[in-house]
Amino acid sequence: MEWWVSMPKIELHAHLNGSIRDFTLLELARALGHKGVIDFSKVEHVILKNDRSLSEVFKLFDLIHIVTTDHSSITRITKEVVEDFASENVVYLELRTTPKKNDSLGMSKRSYMEAVLEGLRAVSSVDVAFVPDSEEPGNLSSPLLSDADNKYNGNNRKKIFVRLLLSIDRRETKEAAMETVSYNAKVFWAKLSLFVTAFEHFTSLLQVMLALEMRHFGVVGIDLSGNPAVGEWITYLPALKFAQEQGLYVTLHCGEVSNSKEIHDMLDLLPQRIGHACFFEEEHWRRLKSSNIPVEICLTSNIRTLSVPTIDAHHFVDLYNAKHPLVLCTDDSGVFSTSLSNEYKIAASSFGLGRKELFELSKNAIEFIFADNVVKEDLRKTFISAAKNQE
Ligand code: 5GP
User: Fold this and answer.
1) Ligand 1 in contact with 330 (CB < 6 A)?
2) What integer best gives the mean pLDDT of the chain?
3) Average pLDDT estimate for 130-134
4) Are 170 and 227 in contact (CB under 8 A)?
5) CATH number of the domain encompassing residue 41
6) Domain span at 312
7) Is 12 within 8 Å of 368 (Cβ atoms)?
8) Strand partners, 297
9) Residue at 151 is within a domain
10) pLDDT: is 153 or 203 the higher one?
11) Is residue 201 part of a domain?
């Protein structure tokens, strides 16, 4: 096995639906074609196309969402995505997804997330630990937790830690939010009414409420994503600040397109991490470096979407040389036909980094994960033992 596959890795920027297997996407699309919901012959080439601009990527996501947004598909995709990452020795995975609502299928944002949890429970090739330590069954917490939800102690089976981030899609409208309110329990209605008047746009707030409600299940933070050419990020600022105040971690897609003011204002929030950082200007780099905000680097995604002109010009090099906190990630392993191992391989061949340097890079990411110290300590041990095995 190649060293970039066998070494332990940490994935911090993976969108659930973007990580779908080609095979699964084609199978689900074909099934919808048979039902007459879509014209499969018209979408097959869209799915199989490899080079896509950023705007074409978002068109593909519209198609993916039509095909995948039902409970059993979300459960299947989650299971497969976790198994795929585990198979290439990802030992800690932060998976992000935008909870969706689909009335015709009886899907609420909460039931969408329950389908994701079912997917985590359905993983069979590896032990999955997704419940935070303080929430383990037996320590009280939610009656919905089962003993099988943290099956990682005391055996020699391969294991993977999974934590979840709820994404806020920049496209979501106030109207959509109004329609989705019903999932929440009374207590959240009460809290909501306190804030609703203060927020012009409260879909994002609902997402934060859902994240808080689902902390027991390994939801650790909020991501702001979706088409960067759409909407004003500032709309979501109150909800993002609220999330931070409540102890949720926040990561932002930042600098995917040229928008100096947006980047400036996003850095003001001091998010716990940012993704991409492709269109940064001198002033942004200076502020990023002085604030030490870790950057989720997605090499293949940035090249495929032409967000950086060539791999040689990628900002990875400057940030790496400046010893800025960095983590290599896939973004959308399905959409961009990549894997985390492949991203490490690309970094090795493009930037002249060796096995040792990339092992260190991977290990350093432990410090930027959104999980607690118990998980961090466990991961440190995993890396120490992997280093010994390599000697
Ligand atoms: P999902 O949230 O449905 O599980 O994953 C797909 C969604 O993630 C997309 O619809 C989009 O909102 C977001 N996403 C995936 N890749 C990217 C990306 O490269 N940039 C941005 N801004 N959003 C993305």
Assistant:
1) no
2) 87
3) 82
4) yes
5) 3.20.20.140
6) 3-134+158-390
7) yes
8) 328
9) no
10) 203
11) yes
Asked whether the predicted pLDDT for residue 346 surpasses 70, the reply is: yes
228 CB less than 6 Å from ligand 1?
yes
Between the CA of 223 and the centroid of ligand 1 the distance, in Å, is: 10
Residues 6+ apart with CB under 8 A from 66: 32, 37, 38
Tell me the sheet residues that pair with 328.
Answer: 297
Which value does ipTM take for this structure? 0.99
Q: Do residues 230 and 171 lie in contact, with contact meaning Cβ atoms separated by under 8 Å?
A: yes
Residue 126, helix vs strand vs coil: coil
In a domain, 20, yes or no: yes
Q: Which two tokens stand for residue 53?
A: 């601009």
CA 90 to CA 19: how far, in whole Å?
Answer: 14
Q: Does pLDDT of 78 surpass 80?
A: yes
Atom from ligand 1 closest to the CA of residue 335: 16
Number of structural domains (the chain) is 1
What is the DSSP annotation of 193-261? HHHHTT-S--HHHHHHHHHHHTGGGTEEEEEEES-TTSS-GGGGHHHHHHHHHTT-EEEEEESSS--HH
What pTM does this model have? 0.90
Mark 177-190 as b/e (b = at least 16 C-beta within 10 Å). Answer: beebbebbeeebee
| Residue 207 Cβ < 6 Å to ligand 1 | no
Confirm whether 144 is domain-assigned. Answer: no
Q: What is the pLDDT of residue 185?
A: 41
